[in-house]
């Protein structure tokens, strides 16, 4: 299987003028097989450019978490190379550790320690000034609960604390594995805004997520992982754009369909209420085509299923069958998540 | 930076509840030791009671050593003025309270019990990091695994030694009333006893902490280290109760003696050191072996070899990726 690089982006961005590679993460032909023959990574190539928010999406057990674990030196790759901020992993990790913040899988802190104490210990280990703990606590909205026991936190609060821990020292690179896990809708929105703002400062956020809507909203680029490989990477717009659907409601659907078809759009009627679906189109161009004929829809919008549809197609997941893009050893598939789930 | 990280590791341990439980339990035990020592030494000495009014001619020195007689003299009891090897039969010991005896075994028992608890304490301090997964959080912040493990073990050993020192000093405080009010059986012993017992107990605690911590890393949890201790206790008990009886010449424990004609290996085994309290590192605090030239330095070397092996395994395990 080859990796699609959509949107005209080269797989390896060119070096910058000062000679430094403009990528913060590089993985080349990385393989990883767990015990019992469960293949988690199967020659995975990934390149994350500097700046912005980079999303990694894929079905359960496809290798997302293992990818992050290899990057952070928590798992050992069987073959291939990995580098982080220009340093080879795991040998060079020590020299760049203070420039990286990470949350992998579930938050892991001492349950009997307060949130603040857990963060202070982490700050000390990272060499970050203890005063920065207050800054990140405020950033994730845990002020007022920081002296409570971590064991008494809700799942969402634990997640916030872990993200706060990752943000200690304002790292250049933030690696977050499912950061929205357990958050309520307001928390998800706040997290989304926080990550987008972080990425907008020139720093880099690498986030793996199942929330395709959030990925579509905050990520500049995305890699789709399936069966231990990156099957597509590029800008979100490029990946999702090829499969954008535009839904609209008009008073005279027959005439609107005719206009759109003559403009080259693929149009399907949806139900009997004047609702139409324009496949693989941009909302703006559909509106322009209709407006030229004095047709103004009462409702019009891009279908967020663009990325979802691309995701389903690229990963080979059948949502009705409940299949996934994980790699199977024999007949049972899945990476470490699935493996743990079976234990 | 290393000093800061070491400080963090110390702080992390000092907040652990298991450490607080260890100290509280230790202090409670000390109270019990202090009270029981005081009450025991304050009671009439039944040993001599038995010989009262029996009409026997002499009491061998064994039952009234010179130091004891001297002590009795201080308390104006009816021992003769001079130090006798034979005491006249009409001597009455009725009502003589027993002085505090450093040889009564309580120091040895306390030290051995302390070492066993240190084993469990360290196993939990190190092992719980794996159970809670906090070792991963730490590894993201400090990916240099060798450094992290070294700092962590150093911190655990430091805290263990400090806790043991507190308990040993607490022991002295606990038995002080008995010493003060009931006297000391042999006034020449305590200083050397305290120095030797303290130093060797701390040395033993150091080795025990390293051994238990290493095993906890190897097994990635406290269970392995504690399980090893329990398994060892069971196996050694079975061994000494049954195998030793069945195998001629105590073949296993004295194999070295068979070759060299010298001392057996028993003195150098962990069981002799930690299981019984009569040999090796803890010999300083026992009755029969103290001052008898028991090769405790050799015992240290042997136990240190165990520690070195366990440490090597621990580093090999921890330096692997894929630790969870």
Word description of this protein:
The complex is a heterodimer of chains A (343) and B (324). Chain A has 343 residues and is an alpha/beta fold. Chain A has 2 domains: 4-240, Rossmann fold (3-Layer(aba) Sandwich), CATH 3.40.50; 252-297, no CATH class. Chain A is 32% helix and 26% strand. Chain A has a 7-stranded mixed β-sheet, sandwiched between helices. A 4-stranded antiparallel β-sheet of chain A has the order 3-2-5-6. In chain A, strands 13-14-12-15 form a 4-stranded antiparallel β-sheet, with helices on one face. In chain A, a hairpin with a 2-residue loop joins strand 16 and strand 17 (332-333). Residues 5-21 and 327-343 of chain A have low confidence and may be disordered. Chain B is mainly alpha-helical and 324 residues long. Chain B folds into 2 domains: 2-39 and 101-319, no CATH class; 44-88, no CATH class. Chain B contains 12 helices and 2 strands. A two-stranded antiparallel ribbon of chain B has the order 1-2. The A-B interface holds A 72-76, 90, 93-94, 97, 100, 102, 104, 106, 108-113, 117, 121-122, 124-127, 165 and B 1, 4-5, 7-8, 11-12, 15-17, 132-134, 136-144, 147, 320-323.
Strand and helix layout:
The complex is a heterodimer of chains A (343) and B (324).
Chain A: E1 4-6, E2 23-33, E3 39-49, E4 52-57, H1 64-71, E5 79-84, E6 87-88, H2 93-96, E7 100-103, H3 115-126, H4 132-139, H5 155-167, E8 173-177, H6 185-200, E9 204-208, H7 212-218, E10 221-226, E11 229-235, H8 236-241, E12 245-249, H9 253-262, E13 266-270, E14 275-279, H10 283-291, E15 299-303, H11 305-315, E16 328-329, E17 332-333, H12 336-342
Parallel strand pairs in A: 1-11, 4-9, 4-10, 7-8, 8-9
Antiparallel strand pairs in A: 2-3, 2-5, 5-6, 10-11, 12-14, 12-15, 13-14, 16-17
Chain B: H1 2-14, H2 17-42, H3 46-49, E1 58-59, H4 66-74, E2 87-88, H5 106-131, H6 134-141, H7 145-182, H8 190-218, H9 222-246, H10 255-260, H11 270-276, H12 296-319
Antiparallel strand pairs in B: 1-2
């Amino acid at each position: 299987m080859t990796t699609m690089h959509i949107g005209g982006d080269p797989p390896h961005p060119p070096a910058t003028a000062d000679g430094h590679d403009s990528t913060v993460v590089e993985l080349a032909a990385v393989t990883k097989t767990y015990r019992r023959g469960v293949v988690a990574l199967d020659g995975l190539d990934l390149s994350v450019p500097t700046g912005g928010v980079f999303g990694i999406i894929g079905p359960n057990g496809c290798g997302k978490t293992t990818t992050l674990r290899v990057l952070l030196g928590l798992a050992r790759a069987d073959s291939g190379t990995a580098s982080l901020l220009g340093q080879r992993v795991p040998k060079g990790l020590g020299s760049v550790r203070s420039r990286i913040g990470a949350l992998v899988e579930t938050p892991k802190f001492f349950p009997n320690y307060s949130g603040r104490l857990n963060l202070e210990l982490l700050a000390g280990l990272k060499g970050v000034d203890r005063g920065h703990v207050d800054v990140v606590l405020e950033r994730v909205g845990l002020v007022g609960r920081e002296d409570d026991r971590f064991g008494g936190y809700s799942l969402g609060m634990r997640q916030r604390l872990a993200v706060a821990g990752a943000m200690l020292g304002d790292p250049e690179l933030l690696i977050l594995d499912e950061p929205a896990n357990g958050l309520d809708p307001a928390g998800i929105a706040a997290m989304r805004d926080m990550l987008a703002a972080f990425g907008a400062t020139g720093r880099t956020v690498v986030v793996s997520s199942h929330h395709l809507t959030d990925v579509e909203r905050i990520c500049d680029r995305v890699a789709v992982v399936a069966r231990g490989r990156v099957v597509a990477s590029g800008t979100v717009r490029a990946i999702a754009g090829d499969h954008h659907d535009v839904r609209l409601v008009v008073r005279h659907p027959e005439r609107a369909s005719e206009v759109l078809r003559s403009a080259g759009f693929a149009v399907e009627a949806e139900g009997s209420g004047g609702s139409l679906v324009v496949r693989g189109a941009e909302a703006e161009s559909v509106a322009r085509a209709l407006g030229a004929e004095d047709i103004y829809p009462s409702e019009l919008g891009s279908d967020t299923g663009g990325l979802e549809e691309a995701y389903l197609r690229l990963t080979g997941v059948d949502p009705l069958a409940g299949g996934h893009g994980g790699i199977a050893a024999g007949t049972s598939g899945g990476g470490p998540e699935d493996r743990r789930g079976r234990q | 930076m290393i000093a800061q990280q070491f400080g963090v590791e110390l702080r992390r341990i000092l907040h652990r509840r298991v450490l607080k439980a260890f100290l509280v339990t230790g202090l409670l035990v000390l109270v019990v030791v202090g009270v029981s020592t005081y009450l025991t030494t304050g009671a009439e000495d039944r040993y001599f009671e038995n010989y009262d009014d029996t009409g026997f001619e002499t009491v061998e020195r064994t039952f009234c050593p010179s130091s004891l007689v001297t002590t009795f003299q201080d308390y104006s009891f009816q021992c003769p003025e001079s130090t006798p090897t034979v005491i006249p039969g009409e001597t009455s010991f009725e009502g003589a309270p027993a002085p505090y005896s450093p040889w009564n075994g309580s120091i040895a028992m306390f030290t051995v019990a302390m070492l066993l608890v240190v084993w469990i304490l360290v196993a939990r301090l190190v092992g719980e990091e794996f159970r809670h997964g906090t070792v991963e959080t730490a590894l993201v912040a400090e990916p240099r695994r060798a450094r992290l493990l070294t700092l962590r073990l150093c911190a655990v050993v430091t805290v263990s030694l400090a806790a043991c020192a507190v308990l040993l000093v607490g022991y002295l405080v606990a038995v002080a009333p008995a010493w003060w009010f009931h006297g000391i059986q042999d006034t020449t012993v305590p200083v050397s006893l305290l120095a030797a017992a303290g130093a060797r107990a701390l040395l033993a605690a150091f080795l025990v902490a390293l051994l238990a911590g290493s095993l906890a890393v190897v097994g990635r949890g406290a269970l392995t280290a504690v399980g090893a201790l329990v398994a060892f206790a069971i196996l050694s008990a079975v061994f000494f109760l049954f195998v030793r009886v069945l195998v001629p010449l105590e073949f296993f424990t004295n194999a070295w003696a068979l070759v060299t004609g010298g001392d057996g290996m028993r003195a150098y085994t962990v069981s002799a050191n930690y299981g019984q309290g009569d040999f090796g590192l803890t010999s300083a605090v026992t009755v029969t072996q103290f001052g008898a030239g028991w090769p405790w330095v050799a015992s240290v070397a042997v136990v240190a070899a165990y520690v070195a092996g366990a440490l090597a395994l621990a580093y090999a395990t921890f330096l692997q990726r894929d630790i969870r």
